[in-house]
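Recap slide: 2-phospho-L-lactate guanylyltransferase, sequence and predicted structure.
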Amino acid sequence: MSWTAIVPLKTSGERKSRLARLLSAEERSVLSARMFHHVINVLPHVPAIGRIVVLADECPADWRGDWMADGRRGLNLELEQARKLLAGDLIVLHADLPLLTPEDVAALIEAASEGLAIAPDRHRTGTNGLALKASTFLEFSFGTDSFSLHRLQHLDCKVIKREGFALDLDTPDDLKALMEIPAYLKL
């Protein structure tokens, strides 16, 4: 069975605003676009992914794939609406995972073979990847402490710890951690 990957993306307004004291609005926009392209370019290399859907308030200008309009009701409500419309097995991946690899995504999908798998951030507070079989109920709880909130709903879920999911780019500390990885600077 093939999976549908949903990649939520903020396309308008201030992107990566928590990095404003380090990067200009243009630099943050370029960085956001670079990470988004990285994530969507990883996904076609995962055989289990049959469809990629970008969830955004407007379709990115250079995206030619499937797009769902974000009605600005909040990520959790938008994902619930997407789940109803798309049906089937879903994987939710944030667009700010600069180290994500096809092997990371495949590992998350494989771990969800019996229901649910979660990939936390490096602090084990946020959820950077979530794979959910169609038959598994989960109330999306992205936001503060999402890893705990998702896990509490399914104590038996699989937790996947991989470098590609560990580092998302939200804070100055995240940016510093990314800049300390020589391989990233060469990309």
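The mean pLDDT is 89.
The domain at 3-185 is CATH 3.90.550.10 (Spore Coat Polysaccharide Biosynthesis Protein SpsA; Chain A).
(End of recap.)
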